[in-house]
Amino acid sequence: MRVVVAQASQRGVWDWDFALEILPDIVRGLWQTVQATLLGITIGMILGLVLALLRRSGVRLISWPTAAVIEFIRGTPLLVQLFFIFFVLPSFGITIGAFASLVIGLGIHYAAYTSESYRAGIENVVRGQWEASVALNLPPATTWTRIILPQAIPTVIPALGNYLVAMFKDAPLGAGISAGGVLLVANSIRSQTLRGVEPYTVMGILFLVVSVPAALFVRYLERKYGYERT
Amino acid sequence: MATREPEITPAADVMVRMNQINLSFGENHVLRDLDLNVAPGEKVVIIGPSGSGKTTILRVIMTLNRPNSGTVEIDGRHLYHEKNNGQLVDAGEKHIRAVRTDVSMVFQHFNLFPHMTSIENTMLAPIKVLGLSKEEARERGANLLEMVGLGDKYNQYPGELSGGQKQRVAIARSLAMRPKVMLFDEVTSALDPELVGEVLAVLTDLAKEGTMTMMLVTHEMGFASEAADRVLMFDAGNVLEEGTPEKILRDPEHKRTQRFLKAVLSH
Ligand SMILES: Nc1ncnc2c1ncn2[C@@H]1O[C@H](COP(=O)(O)OP(=O)(O)OP(=O)(O)O)[C@@H](O)[C@H]1O
Ligand SMILES: [Mg+2]
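Above: the input entities. Below: the structure tokens describing the complete assembly.
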């Protein structure tokens, strides 16, 4: 990052030139945050589905520990989990870079939530669909991949969209482990220039620029998938 | 390991053999010491008051409800048991699946796959279970949809079909598995009255064709007298009386049956 104008702190409460000058750095930071979010939601969606299926397992030795893990993840703050991955795991010989820690942490944290949405979606598939699958003697794998999940997942899409937006707003917590991202950039601009108004304001506005359209997109998904085809 | 040969009992004249079946839902003893044999190709209509266990019998044969005791054999093979060193033991999933291929069921509420077209509904199981190629499955499905009078509805989704059309797709979907035994649970009772006829016509054709064993729970007495070989009057978890359609529908022995028929026919 470039060192920004040192005398910035001597100007008024809001300095347009300064704001414009730091804009590219903040946009770059935001782009990192977006990347962490997109990677994180990908993990969250896949791992969440796996957790949901494990939790539904008829084998209690699988379903109970899965349920416990989900509750544990939901019961602890994301920031604590990030610290655990980045600062504690190395003591056990597992060292993961800061950005990767952020992505993994977001993914695991949100997987605990998406798994509950998947579970609700799966339970919403009417019993008759399972029974028809038996009446046609479909193998369990076919029943899941061709009958149950294709009906369950569309109903889960709006919830996944909401988690995507929520994750985007949680992703700046990566600053806590120096994982890059928009908040880390804004913090370092402030500490170097002793001006906080512009970096944090610009960051806030940029957040809105991304998350408002994202939220509108989620509304659209809700309309599209909110009711079922029968 | 599931083996095929040892389970065959010398009973070529029985397609479905239910032996001393008991089934309870909690305190509710639904099937009581039920013995029931159905011959290959036989068309059996099951009638009886609500809650008497008619649906449950079909669901036991379809493995949707497991009996608490007793045995079921399909074409000489045990459904819920397999032989292990000459002893009957609970069957594994693989064995059940192997025997169950001979059976299929059509439901009151169709249970079509809503995200698949008519033809896709008929193609999935033959491809995944019987190993047919896509082309073979498509041809088989198309012929069956043609047969049930839906030659122009291959690419419609269930949501775009009437109740009678949906039920005919469901029948075609089961037929595509070429089961030896087909179970029909009140397949016309969720339909508007003017749509009942088209489904009964398909069932009558199927029954007249001959080779398939059919068990139908229905209160369509006209259909029963035209298509059934045997009518079973069910009450309180067992067969109250049975006989040819003429016998049971015209001249039943039990008061219970007389009253039941009177109620159904006046309905
Ligand atoms: N899954 C279930 N759990 C608990 N009880 C059940 C279940 N399925 C059926 N029963 C009960 O078992 C009895 C027999 O039900 P079944 O559906 O076989 O009757 P039926 O003869 O088909 O009646 P209907 O003519 O109303 O369809 C009823 O008392 C019913 O309430
Ligand atoms: Mg019933």
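Note for the figure: Residues B 25, 28, 30, 48, 50-56 surround adenosine-5'-triphosphate (ligand 1) (CB under 6 Å).
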